[in-house]
Every structure is written in C-alpha cells, then in structure tokens.
Amino acid sequence: MRQQATPRHQRVPRQRPLACVFAAVVVLLLATPAQAYIGPGAGFAIASSLAVIFWTMLLAVLALLTWPIRWVIRAIRGHRAFARSRVKRVVVLGLDGMEPTLVEKYLAEGRLPNLARLAAQGVYQRLGTTLPPLTPVAWSTFLTGCNPGKHNIFDFLSVDRRNYLPILSSVHIGGTTKTLKIGKYLIPRGKPDIRLLRKGRPFWKDLGDHGIFSSIIRMPITFPPERFRGVSLGAMCIPDIRGTQGTFSYYTTRSAEENIYAGGEQVRVERKNGTVESNLIGPTNSFLAESKPMTAPFAIALNGREDTAQLRLCGDRYTLKQGEYTPWINFHFKAAPAVKVHAICQFLLIATEPEFELYVTPLQLDPEKPAMPISHPKVFSTYLAKSQGPFATMGLAEDTWAHNEKILQDPHFLHQCLEADEEREVMFFDALDKTKRGLVACVFDGTDRIQHMFWRYLDPDHPARDGFGDERLANAIPELFERMDALVGRTMAKCNDPDTLLWVISDHGCKSFRCGVDLNRWLIENGYMTLKEPAKGKKYLATVDWSRTRVYALGLAGLYLNIEGRERHGIVKPGVEADALREELCGKLGGLKDDQHNAVAVNRAFNTATSYTGPYKDNAPDVVVGYNEGYRVAWEAAVGDITDDVFHDNTKAWSGDHCIDPNIAPGVMFCNRKIEADSPRIMDLAPTILELFGVKVPKHMDGRPLKVDLEDAGERAHPA
Q1: What is the Cβ-side half-sphere exposure of residue 53, based on CA atoms within 13 angstroms?
Q2: How far apart are CA 150 and CA 140, in angstroms?
C-alpha cells in the first residue's frame, strides 16, 4: 500500500529562530570516468574534497559590512523600478515535461478544471521547445531567452575533446591546488573552483538591475548560484554529498555476486546477535594527506518483529518501519578536529526476513548547513530549512536508477516524487506570500519523473509493461495531472488580483520510449567508426581506434566528428571535409528504419553548424538526432558502451522520454491573459517578461516579446 505523507502545504511550519550558519565547504575535483548521466538519478561520479571554512566566513563578513551601501542603492532603484511596468508581479509555475496531448485529453474529459478555468481567463497553447528538447537545454533557453549556441548547454553531458570522456555540461567543480600540510592534515589555502558552465545572462539579473526583485525556486541549471537582486534555490546538477548526480546504497545480507548497479552500489552486511552494522559512505576526506572516503557508522537492531527495527546513527535513534521511508535524517561526517560535513538522507527498510534489505537514498547536502553554495544568498537555504524542515537538495532527488534496478518498487518511487513536489510547494507559496511585486518562478519536476517512469501504463505494447507492473498504480499519470491541476488552483487563488500575470508552462513534452538506438554500432556498420577490439562491456569508447574513426556518439543528443586539431586524435579536416560529412550524416540518418519493428526510428537529423548561432555553437554535437516517437539513444550508447546491435528494446521502468524530434515534443503554455502568438516558443518568455516590467530587451536575445493583452485584467481576475 502506498504510504501517504501529510501534504506539506497543510503542515504547520516549524517555528525556529533564523540563524546564519555556515559550514565547511565540500568541494569536488575534476570529473573522473564513471557511470555517466543517462537519465535523472544516474550516478555521474566526480571525485570530491573539502575546502577551508575561512573563505565562506570572509564572504559573510564582507556582505555584512557592505550591506548598508547596497540597501541604499536598492532603495533608490526600487523607488523607480515600476515606473514603466505594466504589471506588478509575474508568476511562472513550471511543470517540467508536461505532455500537451495528455493535457488536451484530460481537459476534454473534464479532469483538469483549474487549467480549463485558467485557459478560459486567458490562453492555452502548445509551447515550442528547443533542439534537443532536453530539460537543461530548454530551461537554459527559458532563463536566457537565447538559443543553445549562446548559453552553451546542448545536453546533460558534453565531451572532453582531450580524452573523449563524458563530462557534465553545466558545471565545473574543482578544489584548490594550494594546501598547507600540518602533520597528517592538509589545510586548503585557496578558494574552491566551482563554475557554472552555462553562459548567457538570466533575465532576472536584468530585472534586478532595474530594481525589480525575483524569487527563483528550483530552476534547473542555476548551480552554483549567481548573484542578483532576489533569492534563489538551485536544482538540476546540484550533486549529492559524494559529488555524484545520485548514488544510492543497498545494504543486504544477500550474496554480493551481482552487486553492480547503474547509479548505485550494493553493500554486503551480516546479521550478528540481531544487529546489522555498516557505514554511510561520504566524500573523500582531502584534509588527510592519505585521502580516503569519510564514513558515518550506523547500526540496526532487529527486535524480532519483521516489520520494524531500530536505527542508531551519530548518537541518535530512529524507528524503521518496513515499507516506509524515514523522514530526512540529519547526520555528519568527521573530517578533521572541529570540522564536520553535514548531510541528510532517508532510510527505507525493505525486508528483514529471510534476507535483510535496506535502501538508503543518495546522501544529500544539508540545506541548513550546506557544504557548498546551493542558494543565493547562502543563508536562503538555511532559512528554508529552519522554516519547513529538511528537504531534498540534490538536483535529481527522485531515484530513477534504484527504480530501474528494481531496488525500489513503484510505490516507493512515487513516494519520492510526491514528497519532492510537496517540499517545493511550501517554498513556492512562501515566495508568493513574500514577493508581492516582481517575479516568482518555481519549477516542479514530478511531472517529468513520473511520466518517465510510469509511461508503460499508458502503452500496452511497451517492452517493460509487465516487468515492473504494479496495477495499483496504473493511473499514476492521470492522477499526477489531477494533482498538478489542484496545485494550479491553489496558485490561482494566490494570484487572484488584476496586477499579477500567471503563466503555467512546461519546457517540453513526453512520449513513449520503447526502443533504444546504438548510434556507435550504426557508425561501425556504416564505415564511420573502427574498433581495436570487441567493445562489449567497455564504456567511454575505450576500444575505439581513433586513427580510423571519423565520427563518434556520446550523451543523449547526437554525434561528434573526430576533427583534426579539435579532438586529441582527430582525422577529419575542418572546413569543407567536415561540412560535407555533417550533411552526409544528416542525409543517412534522416528516415532511419527499424526493420525489426517496421518503424521509422529517426525523423530527421540536424546539422548544428546551421541550427545554432552564437559564440558557443562549436561546443555542440556536430549532428543532433531527432528521433521518432518510441525511440531514443540506447542506454549503453549514452556512455559509449558499444553493443552488438543498432536497436534494443527498452525493458527498464524508465519508459517515457522526450529526447526526440522537437516538433513532436512541444511543451504547454497557459496564461491568465490573452496572448496573440501563432507559435509561441519557450525562448520568447524571457523577453516578454522583461517588456511587461518595462525593461528593454537585450539585443542578444533570440526570443521576441509576445503580445500580451492586459486590458480588462480585473474582470478576468474576478470573473462573474
């Protein structure tokens, strides 16, 4: 039976005093090869280390000293801010991945009364997405108003051209190279190197320059946080405490013969005198000259009842109930004398007999004492934790890989999605209550995760239809849409005034994902790639003969040419030869047929040399593949694990996707005002919001302001 948590919007907030608490900073070093990001929750590993508390405290002191000056400047700007504004407030409610065909179906069935009411007040239209229609790409376009060639995000992953290895596309996280050795300890002497690789300027920085305040809650690709006039809490690509994009742990007395999981690890434990003891595994302790992972020991006492047990961790005790998650538990690792690294996690006791089985979520940054900056200002996450309690901080908190690996069952995964959305709703409504003038934007990602993992219930012929089935949750997606409609209703009640413009949008849609395409196997069969030896089981293109390979594939989006002077072992000459090869690939891939299923796998392929504009377009894949509905890059191909076949049935719980032709994956747009636009695009929203606030649209933006009708706004806000 599904565990129903009390909705957070109905809970009484915890009344605690606000304190500015700064902890030691956990810093992550350069990426090392590991399981790459092939979907939310996959563990893309990054080595980790610690940096000194001094830098954090110094910045805090400087902020306090300059606060009076900054307050005066902001007061002057704020006095003039709304002189030319046509609205007092704009609210953007993002429902990541919400599929328009389902919206339209459920609207017609009367299942979405609040969205229907919102459309009647203003407008409903499909919203053009990006190439490719991936979450980090689309939201980066939303917040900059630019095509990917100007914001530098083309995929979840990009390629290190020096070694052909995948790296995270959005953030570089590195430590300091300067240390002071004292005995067995290394004391960092420099600032950590944490850099956002997304380029371009979020439009709320332009608003802030004109004195307009913004509350930006859980917007993807905003880590590390940027300074602006407002508050923000990051989302996608915030790592866990170990520096991965989500590594779960599975503790069991079962044999460890098969203990390799994508995105997680199995830890063999033993039952001794009714007790199971083990360790939570943390980041590498770089305070030690002989660095090794930090650990936090825990013990579980099995009290003879199969449905309960007692957990002891960091001196505290908790009751575990079989099949139920614990609340978020605060704990810490000891890095050095007087230096602790704080984290949070949840435990799920799966079984005690005949085998002991325990799932632990990825260990996440403690929002009250974050080990690296996740919000702006830094104290904002502390404020949220003080007011509502601990919450998931990792950018991809819903553990899709534990679900794919059948460690988590359908109800267990759904619980994570519900809890994450409830946490965001508390933050969102707090921002609505406190931001009466300016911009409020919040993204909920439960729509994306639940569609990804439960689409098999909408597709009777899906290869994973029976492998993960739990008929109790066959209506998980329609119930999701009804919950989001109720959220929209509560949001409308808080935006029921003539001077607030409300948008409800999604960045892309979602379709069935039945079959994966191994692009590298296709390249081999068509003479573009050569191997030195069989590649089965070898990730990261480890067996490719680069002296005879012209094209390779990595990540979710497309293909890269092995260009001379760009790649380490490039053989394709830039210019005429490379241009011709791009066109040749587009011609051959467009209309690619899957004979086994008698279907077209690829609608068309895009030459990015002509699809993107801007200073960063050369960082894109050379060809982006626009898959047909039902297809996507194969799981193995995303990390360079070359298989024996081009086409593979998708048998994982992850059964829906949107890494396809953008023309068949648009998002949705609802607004409480009439909008005149034949084909609105997600890149048009930033310039539209700037214009509504009377701020001049920067020339570099590719989006164009939509024509918003604000006449008779009061009548629409208070319909008869």
Answers
A1: 13
A2: 10
Residue type, 286: S
Percent of the chain with pLDDT over 90: 75
Tokens of 33: 């090869």
Instruction: For residue 198, give Cα distances in angstroms to 65, 139, 658, 689.
Output: 31, 11, 21, 21
Domain limits, the chain: 22-81+161-197+238-381, 83-153+400-508+666-720, 513-664
- Peptide bond connecting 188 to the previous residue in cis, omega within 30 degrees of 0: no
Q: CATH for 83-153+400-508+666-720?
A: 3.40.720.10
Name the CA radius of gyration of the chain, rounded: 25
Coil, strand, or helix at residue 696?
coil
74-124 pLDDT, tens per residue? 555 555 677 889 999 999 999 999 999 999 999 999 999 999 999 999 999
Q: What is the largest CA-CA distance in the chain?
A: 76
Where is mean pLDDT largest: 185-199, 293-307, 322-336? 322-336
Q: What is the pLDDT of residues 564-599, one digit of tens each?
A: 999 999 999 999 999 999 999 999 999 999 999 999
CA distance 256 to 259: 5
3-class secondary structure, 626: strand
What HEC string does 134-182 produce? Answer: CHHHHHHHHHHCCCHHHHCCCCCEEEECCCCEEEECCEEEECCCCEEEE
Q: What stretch of H or E contains 92?
A: strand 89-95
Distance CA 532, CA 544 (A): 6
User: Pairing state of beta strands 89-95 and 438-444?
Assistant: parallel
* Residue whose pair of structure tokens reads 């005198």 in the numeric block: 273
b/e string for 226-242 if b means 16 or more Cβ within 10 A?
Answer: bebbbbbbbbbbbbbbb
CB 579: neighbour CB atoms within 10 A? 15
Q: Residues near 139 by Cβ (< 8 Å), separated by ≥ 6? A: 94, 219, 220, 221, 236, 443, 507
Would you call the peptide bond into 224 cis, given omega within 30 degrees of 0 as the criterion? yes
Residue 144 φ/ψ, nearest 5 degrees = -105, -20
Separation of alpha carbons 454 and 234, rounded Å: 26
What value does the mean pLDDT take over residues 503-508?
A: 98
Cα distances (Å, whole numbers) of residue 346 to 94, 391, 392, 397: 27, 11, 10, 11
Tokens of residue 347, six digits: 């435990």
